[in-house]
Design goal:
DNA-binding, alpha+beta, 4 helices
Length: 169
DNA sequence: GCCTCGATTGACT
DNA sequence: GTCAATCGAGGCA
Protein backbone atom coordinates (compact mmCIF):
# COMPACT_ATOMS: atom_id res chain seq x y z
CA UNK A 1 0.00 0.00 0.00
CA UNK A 2 1.01 3.56 -0.71
CA UNK A 3 1.71 6.30 1.83
CA UNK A 4 -0.57 9.31 1.37
CA UNK A 5 1.33 12.25 -0.10
CA UNK A 6 1.43 15.80 1.20
CA UNK A 7 -0.89 16.92 -1.60
CA UNK A 8 -3.65 14.78 -0.08
CA UNK A 9 -3.58 16.92 3.07
CA UNK A 10 -3.06 20.28 1.40
CA UNK A 11 -6.74 20.64 0.61
CA UNK A 12 -9.99 21.73 2.20
CA UNK A 13 -10.08 20.46 5.80
CA UNK A 14 -13.62 19.14 5.60
CA UNK A 15 -12.84 17.18 2.44
CA UNK A 16 -9.69 15.68 3.96
CA UNK A 17 -11.69 14.68 7.05
CA UNK A 18 -14.15 12.76 4.89
CA UNK A 19 -11.55 11.16 2.68
CA UNK A 20 -9.42 9.99 5.61
CA UNK A 21 -12.16 7.53 6.54
CA UNK A 22 -11.13 4.03 5.54
CA UNK A 23 -7.42 4.91 5.39
CA UNK A 24 -4.85 3.11 7.55
CA UNK A 25 -2.99 4.88 10.36
CA UNK A 26 0.45 3.39 11.03
CA UNK A 27 2.64 3.96 14.09
CA UNK A 28 5.56 1.60 14.71
CA UNK A 29 4.10 -1.88 14.54
CA UNK A 30 0.55 -0.69 15.18
CA UNK A 31 -1.97 -0.08 12.45
CA UNK A 32 -5.68 0.61 12.34
CA UNK A 33 -8.33 1.81 9.93
CA UNK A 34 -9.62 5.32 10.50
CA UNK A 35 -13.38 5.14 11.09
CA UNK A 36 -14.17 8.50 12.70
CA UNK A 37 -12.82 12.05 12.23
CA UNK A 38 -13.69 15.67 12.95
CA UNK A 39 -12.71 18.79 11.01
CA UNK A 40 -11.33 21.86 12.78
CA UNK A 41 -10.72 25.11 10.94
CA UNK A 42 -8.94 28.21 12.14
CA UNK A 43 -10.67 31.47 11.41
CA UNK A 44 -14.37 31.45 12.19
CA UNK A 45 -14.30 28.23 14.21
CA UNK A 46 -14.55 29.02 17.96
CA UNK A 47 -13.92 25.39 18.86
CA UNK A 48 -10.55 25.35 17.14
CA UNK A 49 -7.30 26.00 18.97
CA UNK A 50 -6.29 28.19 16.05
CA UNK A 51 -9.32 30.46 16.47
CA UNK A 52 -7.49 33.04 18.60
CA UNK A 53 -4.55 33.18 16.27
CA UNK A 54 -1.16 31.58 16.32
CA UNK A 55 -0.14 30.42 19.79
CA UNK A 56 2.49 28.08 21.14
CA UNK A 57 0.06 25.16 21.12
CA UNK A 58 -1.75 25.82 17.84
CA UNK A 59 1.46 26.60 15.97
CA UNK A 60 1.46 23.19 14.31
CA UNK A 61 -2.00 23.85 12.83
CA UNK A 62 -0.60 26.85 10.97
CA UNK A 63 2.37 24.93 9.64
CA UNK A 64 2.73 22.74 6.55
CA UNK A 65 0.14 19.99 5.92
CA UNK A 66 0.72 16.27 6.31
CA UNK A 67 2.08 16.60 9.82
CA UNK A 68 0.77 15.37 13.15
CA UNK A 69 -0.71 17.84 15.61
CA UNK A 70 -0.65 16.15 18.99
CA UNK A 71 -1.74 18.04 22.08
CA UNK A 72 -2.34 17.30 25.73
CA UNK A 73 -5.61 18.01 27.51
CA UNK A 74 -7.54 17.28 30.72
CA UNK A 75 -4.20 16.73 32.43
CA UNK A 76 -4.02 13.18 31.12
CA UNK A 77 -5.04 12.78 27.50
CA UNK A 78 -3.24 13.10 24.17
CA UNK A 79 -5.21 13.92 21.02
CA UNK A 80 -4.03 13.09 17.53
CA UNK A 81 -4.78 15.41 14.62
CA UNK A 82 -3.55 15.67 11.07
CA UNK A 83 -2.63 19.12 9.79
CA UNK A 84 -4.40 20.21 6.60
CA UNK A 85 -4.48 23.19 4.23
CA UNK A 86 -1.44 24.88 2.78
CA UNK A 87 1.42 26.19 4.92
CA UNK A 88 0.28 29.27 6.82
CA UNK A 89 -3.43 28.38 6.79
CA UNK A 90 -4.70 26.73 9.98
CA UNK A 91 -6.65 23.50 9.79
CA UNK A 92 -6.59 20.02 11.27
CA UNK A 93 -8.52 16.78 11.33
CA UNK A 94 -9.00 15.06 14.68
CA UNK A 95 -8.72 11.29 14.50
CA UNK A 96 -11.46 10.11 16.86
CA UNK A 97 -11.51 6.35 16.34
CA UNK A 98 -9.69 3.50 14.62
CA UNK A 99 -10.69 -0.03 13.76
CA UNK A 100 -8.00 -2.27 15.24
CA UNK A 101 -7.51 -5.16 17.59
CA UNK A 102 -6.71 -2.68 20.36
CA UNK A 103 -9.05 -0.42 22.27
CA UNK A 104 -9.10 2.57 19.91
CA UNK A 105 -12.74 3.70 19.86
CA UNK A 106 -12.05 7.17 21.24
CA UNK A 107 -9.57 9.98 20.58
CA UNK A 108 -7.64 9.60 23.83
CA UNK A 109 -7.88 5.82 23.79
CA UNK A 110 -6.27 5.41 20.42
CA UNK A 111 -3.27 7.58 21.31
CA UNK A 112 -2.79 5.56 24.47
CA UNK A 113 -3.10 2.23 22.63
CA UNK A 114 -0.73 3.31 19.82
CA UNK A 115 1.81 4.97 22.13
CA UNK A 116 1.30 8.40 20.56
CA UNK A 117 2.48 11.34 22.70
CA UNK A 118 3.51 14.96 22.37
CA UNK A 119 6.88 13.85 21.10
CA UNK A 120 5.18 13.26 17.76
CA UNK A 121 3.78 16.78 17.58
CA UNK A 122 4.91 18.28 14.30
CA UNK A 123 6.21 14.96 12.94
CA UNK A 124 5.67 14.38 9.23
CA UNK A 125 3.37 11.51 8.31
CA UNK A 126 5.68 10.15 5.64
CA UNK A 127 7.78 7.58 7.45
CA UNK A 128 7.37 3.84 7.55
CA UNK A 129 6.84 3.94 11.32
CA UNK A 130 4.47 6.93 11.33
CA UNK A 131 2.21 7.57 8.37
CA UNK A 132 -1.22 7.02 6.84
CA UNK A 133 -1.62 4.47 4.07
CA UNK A 134 -3.96 4.84 1.14
CA UNK A 135 -6.79 2.38 0.78
CA UNK A 136 -9.23 1.28 -1.88
CA UNK A 137 -11.98 1.35 0.69
CA UNK A 138 -15.10 3.23 -0.33
CA UNK A 139 -16.79 3.55 3.04
CA UNK A 140 -20.31 4.82 3.50
CA UNK A 141 -19.84 8.19 5.20
CA UNK A 142 -22.26 9.55 7.77
CA UNK A 143 -21.93 12.91 9.52
CA UNK A 144 -23.01 14.69 12.70
CA UNK A 145 -22.08 17.62 14.87
CA UNK A 146 -18.77 17.46 16.69
CA UNK A 147 -18.52 15.85 20.10
CA UNK A 148 -17.40 17.39 23.40
CA UNK A 149 -17.24 20.88 21.93
CA UNK A 150 -18.89 23.69 23.88
CA UNK A 151 -18.62 26.34 21.19
CA UNK A 152 -19.55 24.32 18.16
CA UNK A 153 -20.58 25.71 14.84
CA UNK A 154 -24.01 24.69 13.70
CA UNK A 155 -22.52 22.40 11.12
CA UNK A 156 -21.88 18.70 10.68
CA UNK A 157 -18.12 18.44 10.90
CA UNK A 158 -17.84 14.96 12.39
CA UNK A 159 -17.62 12.10 9.92
CA UNK A 160 -17.74 8.39 10.52
CA UNK A 161 -18.21 5.14 8.69
CA UNK A 162 -21.86 4.21 8.78
CA UNK A 163 -22.50 1.09 10.84
CA UNK A 164 -18.87 0.58 11.92
CA UNK A 165 -18.64 -0.95 15.40
CA UNK A 166 -15.47 0.92 16.32
CA UNK A 167 -16.97 4.41 16.11
CA UNK A 168 -16.97 6.06 19.55
CA UNK A 169 -20.21 6.29 21.49
C1' DG B 1 1.92 36.02 38.13
C1' DC B 2 -2.61 33.85 39.00
C1' DC B 3 -6.66 31.51 37.72
C1' DT B 4 -9.79 28.96 34.86
C1' DC B 5 -10.94 25.32 32.00
C1' DG B 6 -10.46 21.75 28.40
C1' DA B 7 -11.58 18.52 20.76
C1' DT B 8 -11.97 12.86 27.49
C1' DT B 9 -12.49 8.79 30.01
C1' DG B 10 -13.74 5.61 33.47
C1' DA B 11 -15.53 4.91 37.95
C1' DC B 12 -19.26 5.54 40.82
C1' DT B 13 -24.32 6.84 42.68
C1' DG C 1 -26.70 10.54 35.28
C1' DT C 2 -22.80 12.78 37.79
C1' DC C 3 -18.02 13.63 38.76
C1' DA C 4 -12.99 13.43 39.76
C1' DA C 5 -8.45 13.00 37.67
C1' DT C 6 -4.60 16.26 36.64
C1' DC C 7 -1.65 19.97 34.30
C1' DG C 8 -0.33 23.16 30.77
C1' DA C 9 -1.99 26.69 27.66
C1' DG C 10 -4.14 30.84 27.32
C1' DG C 11 -6.65 34.86 29.10
C1' DC C 12 -6.39 38.52 31.90
C1' DA C 13 -4.25 41.88 35.28
Amino acid sequence: MKILSISFYARDTKRVAQELLGKILVHKNFRGKIVETEAYFGTGDPASHAFRGLTKRSKTMFGPPGRAYVYFTYGMHWMLNVVTEKDGTPGAVLIRALESSLSTNGPAKLTKAFGITGKLNGAELNKRDFCILDSKDKPEIASSKRIGVSNDLNRNLRFYIEGNKFVSK
